[in-house]
Amino acid sequence: MASLELKSYERPSALALVRTVAAIIFRAVSLIAAVALATGVGVWSSRYMISRGSPLSVDSYGPWQHWRDLGRENADPYSKAHLASTGKLRISADSAGIFEARTDSQGARLHSSCNYKIEGASLPGLWWSLAVFDARGRLIRNDADRYTFTADTIAPNPNGSYVVTLGRDARPGNWIPTGGAGRLVLVFTVLDPANGLSDEQRAERNKRLPVITRESCS
């Protein structure tokens, strides 16, 4: 008759238990960190797409960004979210070209601590406006009550071009105060004529957007 061989149970050592528990904790922490990182990246990328757009929704012309479907019924979700985030009613892209700039033409962030010169070419037959806002999309309060210049209010050069200056301190000419607003956003709006614009005319308009030059900072 075969005998049964009983093996004694060996309890794991304290060191082995510590290693096992540490491995479990490490895996759990790694999983939580990976999920948190993925969530954070997703939230950041969504906010960036809503704020700045992507080549799928935005055309770039130097420092200027143009949301091509802004205000249209068939606009993509990011364009709709961008419009909603401003808290303002915007003219549809079917009726106007609306361009936003957060940097100068050299790529440096616009800021109220600097002085800027904005040089624009003549746009015959087109009405336009140029306004400056703070980073939250609000007009910048100032004692001069100056917030924007338009094709009707600008003092142009003899050839129809114009220069607008931005800065804290008053200047002669077409000056818009920036106070202590911090980061700035420029919005350049060009209305289409009643009979609309062809694709070629839109392309020509987009080549004549203002140049933004930083002159000095304090």
Task: Assign the structural class, choosing from mainly alpha, mainly beta, alpha/beta, alpha+beta, or little secondary structure.
Answer: alpha+beta
| Major sheet size, sense and barrel closure | 6 strands, antiparallel
**Tally of helical runs:** 3
Shape: elongated
Separation of the first and last Cα atoms: 100 Å
What is the total domain count? 2
The CATH topology label of the largest domain is Jelly Rolls
Helicity range = 25-40%
Task: Write out the CATH superfamily name of the largest domain.
Answer: Domain of unknown function DUF1214, C-terminal domain
Beta-strand proportion = 25-35%
Assigned CATH class of the largest domain:
Mainly Beta
The total beta strand count reads: 10
Average residue-wise pLDDT: 80
Q: What is the element string, with H for helices and E for strands?
A: HEEHEEEEEEEHE
As laid out across the biggest beta sheet, the strand order is 1-2-3-9-5-6
CATH architecture of the largest domain: Sandwich
- Unreliable segments of 5+ consecutive residues: none
Give the radius of gyration: 29 Å
Structure description:
By secondary structure, this protein is of the alpha+beta class. It has 2 domains: 15-51; 54-217, Jelly Rolls, CATH 2.60.120.600. The protein is 26% helix and 25% strand. It contains 3 helices and 10 strands; from the N terminus they run αββαβββββββαβ. The protein has helices spanning 14-51, 77-86, 199-207; strands at 58-61, 64-67, 96-101, 114-120, 128-134, 148-150, 162-167, 175-177, 184-191, 211-217. α1 crosses α2 (77-86). The relative contact order is 0.16.
